[in-house]
Automatic annotation (TrEMBL), chains A, B:
Residue stretches spanning the membrane: none
Species of provenance: Mucilaginibacter frigoritolerans
Protein name per its UniProtKB record: NADP-dependent aldehyde dehydrogenase
Keyword list, A-Z: Oxidoreductase
Annotated Aldehyde dehydrogenase domain residues: 16-432
GO MF terms, alphabetically ordered: oxidoreductase activity, acting on the aldehyde or oxo group of donors, NAD or NADP as acceptor
Keyword NADP appears in the UniProt entry: no
Domain of life: Bacteria
Gene3D superfamilies named among the record's database cross-references: Aldehyde Dehydrogenase, Chain A, domain 1, Aldehyde Dehydrogenase, Chain A, domain 2
PANTHER family: ALDEHYDE DEHYDROGENASE-RELATED (PTHR43353:SF3), SUCCINATE-SEMIALDEHYDE DEHYDROGENASE, MITOCHONDRIAL (PTHR43353)
């Protein structure tokens, strides 16, 4: 039933060898479907098709792009339960979560459709001519964002829909006007196949150039490496581990031509518990964070892996309460056997470091299933944390490390010792915030998003979202991979000087036929 | 009179050894002033000062930044003739050109002052809370651009003022809120010293944190390499040669943390002469291009180094006329002996390639001076051009290569064989443009700026300018190094979630106290 051949420009293309299968991580059992790793010839064919499609797709109308994106969303919704069930089977994530994720995925596609249809996202800037200017007349110059070329997207394991084949990277690249080549994640090839079929059908139905979308399989690293190094690839988007992201960066550095490689490599998302709130409501905080730490078996880039506080009686109560909640948190199936093994290995290694103290491990483990996450909380002193880089590593899973400072000055030192982060969170009473100005400034320097009295998990898909922080959280903190801003990873400005009005892109024509917001002679206007 | 010590956070710091001097390129004679190459200790001191300054400068008020930038401009204007004379002596460029460049430099500083004072450049995006939303309430999320950290700027040789110590890179980085460390160009250290003194004085006068500006000397590569590799450096800006730019890229790839390195590495700036205009007014076109090719001894990134046309009687007349104009073009002093030698060597090598024909070389050479540029025009067939990559290399100087195609199809092939470019120019009659849709699309894919019936030299400093094209023209085509857009190289978005209004940056506060344009719930408004 599932066609496991590579999808190239709307066609299934057969290839010899390289067959692999999907596994249900909760049982370790093989799922249906044979998937075929692509070879060099297919990669060549795929990128030729993408490059050819780019010539047409880069200047296609915003309305046509919007229709394409909405049709993808419609087709994903139409698959419905089959898609949800397969994603659940391949990821071990619960039905409720995957159902929500499908909604998020189609919502994202529609949001980008709205963005391109409205049209102002191209950031049109017009400086009109000043023929009378002395000593030199000024030319008419008009600039807007234009797509960069074929984008290679790597499916992420932890969001088999929302950060995978039709996820935010694909949606934003297609919105930008870039053909997309997806390297399917080998942990959910069946889900990927169903989504790729939906995108291909939508492309055909809406008259897109064939090479606007392709998807290649591989359960190793060869196809991904070749895609990143291919000279026809013009940008790369990846969400995953630090090691995975850095491997792609290194491959891209071997290229003849430089291209943007956006890798979101996660972070430990520090949470600062300020004293007044900590002493006022330690149990409430503990309950909130027990939930955030263990949500989705902790398999979020924004999982709160680090909790920072100054020692106090409130902190002791917080620890006791958090420990109690974690101890009875039921285990959950992790995404893959490899992720489960890494979680066990890395959490074990860190727990073996000098100076660390285990607070608690969950004892509610489902013995009927495999790859079960064991929620864990540990504790170190601020001094030990600063001295040992190992404590700052991301442990992907339901893990959080509590760092106890003697005073505010030491808390500030901990913050200044941190690497770049996707998020940072402050739990505080309103009144105590102004007392921690330096601390908040130091924290802001380290992060892409700073949250007050919330949890970092749950990343809203909206215009204001920033999901990208200083290295090593992402390869380039100047961009986001969530929200409409994600489109700017895949565009470059082009300026037209003294160009013939009727031959300009509609966005830049004098009459503003698309009725978009533009910056004309330094004023924002629709005129 | 000129203090040639390194300028660190407002102080002259002495260092042993490494003395070098400036040379007048028109005579080869040494100019006054001893300049001292920095050492590792000074580099460390400089970046520590810049990092400390960043904590203050990143959140300084827009008004304070604007005053700082304008004070720099005032102080440069106040030095006036002394600065102009020194820059002329060090660069060999004529007084008129340097006077104009000083105006451009101060104009740039004032333009960025206006930009930060007006304030909307931060691209504030506000998505307000939806507490009633189901299944999950939406948080209040507010995002704006914030500075990235200390920026290392390399002075460029060909614009000793406008792309050097207080040039566009420095102005845009300071406008962004980033401290700047300049690596002075060794060809104009005296000019650099005078400008650095002006910036330091302006920083003190306007109460900026001391480390907001420093400048280090070196007549070799060591200081630049250390600056690029230093972990406290958060971005790099460079304008120069492909080899220089790529050397910095490679150094940055050895870093532990990834940072943006914007290198503008020049291009050959193709000019397409379409048939109708070529046959209507070949002599006018020739006169226009003789001027553009030889302006400033051809030492512009946007110099038209490649002219493409279809063979015709009009083209023959164009060549005859261009040749005649070039033959009597007076020689000019090139920026340095090294640049002159490279020009002689590379133009000689290309002229020795099979299939090339010399059209003409200037015979009006000033024998009283050294390092004199010899304007040169050569000719090849489209076939030969496509077959030999050497013909596509940038020859920095008054050189242009004419490529003759048999027909429009072959002209298109030449365009598709080109590397990425800063600019592309089309000379055409209005009526013939629609006949060349595919050709114009192919050309647009290759370039950052496309010009109709003008010359690529002369880069307007304005909001709509794009000075940056696909690799190898620049390291990242998504940014510009000229115009107000240059500021976006040095900023990253930060999002505040559910943050306390009074503690938000003013740009994001509910009442919009700075009265800037913001995108609130997907609508542009000042409310």
């Amino acid at each position: 039933m599932i066609n496991g051949n590579n999808v190239i420009a709307g066609n299934y293309v057969e290839v010899d060898g390289g067959v692999f299968n999907a596994t249900d991580p909760s049982t370790g059992k093989q799922l249906t479907g044979d998937f075929h790793a692509a070879d060099t010839l297919l990669i060549e064919k795929t990128l030729n098709a993408a490059t050819a499609a780019f010539k047409v797709y880069r200047i296609i109308s915003p309305a046509a792009k919007a229709t394409f994106l909405r049709t993808i969303a419609d087709k994903l919704t139409a698959i419905g339960d089959d898609l949800i069930n397969r994603a659940v089977a391949e990821s071990g994530l619960p039905v409720g979560r995957i159902t929500g994720e499908l909604g998020r995925t189609t919502g994202q596609l529609r949001l980008f459709a709205d963005l391109v249809e409205e049209g102002s996202w191209v950031d049109a800037v017009i400086d009109t001519a000043q023929p009378e200017r002395t000593p030199i007349p000024r030319s008419d110059i008009r600039r807007m964002f234009s797509p960069i070329g074929p984008v290679v997207v790597f499916g992420a394991s932890n969001f088999p829909l929302a950060f995978s084949v039709a996820g935010g990277d694909t949606a934003s690249a297609l919105a930008a006007g870039c053909p997309v080549v997806v390297k399917a994640h080998p942990a959910h090839p069946g889900t990927s196949a169903m989504v790729a079929a939906a995108i291909s059908a939508a492309a055909i139905e809406t008259g897109m150039p064939a090479g606007v979308f392709s998807m290649l399989y591989d359960n190793g690293y060869n196809v991904g490496a070749q895609l990143v190094k291919h000279e026809q690839t013009k940008a790369v988007a990846f969400t995953g581990s630090y090691n995975g992201g850095m491997a792609l960066i290194k491959l891209a550095q071997e290229r003849k031509s430089l291209i943007p490689v956006f890798t979101e490599m996660g972070s430990i998302n520090p949470v600062i518990l300020l004293p007044a709130i900590l002493n006022a409501e330690p149990e409430t905080l503990a309950a909130k964070y027990a939930g955030s730490i263990t949500l989705g078996a902790g398999q979020f880039c924004t999982n709160p892996g680090l909790i920072l506080a100054i020692k106090s009686e409130g902190l002791d109560r917080f620890v006791t309460s958090l420990g109690g909640a974690i101890e009875i948190t039921p285990s959950a199936t992790m995404l893959t056997a490899g992720i489960w093994k890494n979680y066990e290995k890395l959490s074990g290694e860190i727990l073996a470091e000098p100076g660390i103290e285990l607070v608690t491990k969950s004892t509610a483990i489902d013995k009927e299933k495999v790859n079960q996450s064991v929620a864990t909380i540990a504790k170190v002193s601020a001094e030990a944390f600063i001295a040992n880089k190992k404590f700052g590593e991301e442990v992907f899973g339901p893990w959080s490390l509590l760092v106890v400072a003697d005073d505010a000055a030491q808390l500030q030192q901990v913050i200044e010792s941190l690497d770049g982060q996707l998020t940072a969170t402050v739990m505080a009473e309103k009144e105590e915030l102004p007392l921690y100005g330096d601390l908040l400034n130091a924290l802001t320097e380290k992060t892409g998003r700073i949250i007050l009295n919330g949890v970092p998990t749950g990343v809203e898909v909206c215009a204001a979202m920033q999901h990208g922080g200083p290295f090593p959280a992402t390869s380039d903190s100047r961009f986001t991979s969530v929200g409409t801003g994600a489109v700017y990873r895949f565009v470059r400005p082009i300026a037209w000087q003294d160009w013939e009005d009727s031959l300009l892109p509609p966005e830049l024509q004098q009459a503003n036929p698309l009725n978009i917001w533009r910056q004309v002679n330094n004023k924002w206007t629709k005129e």
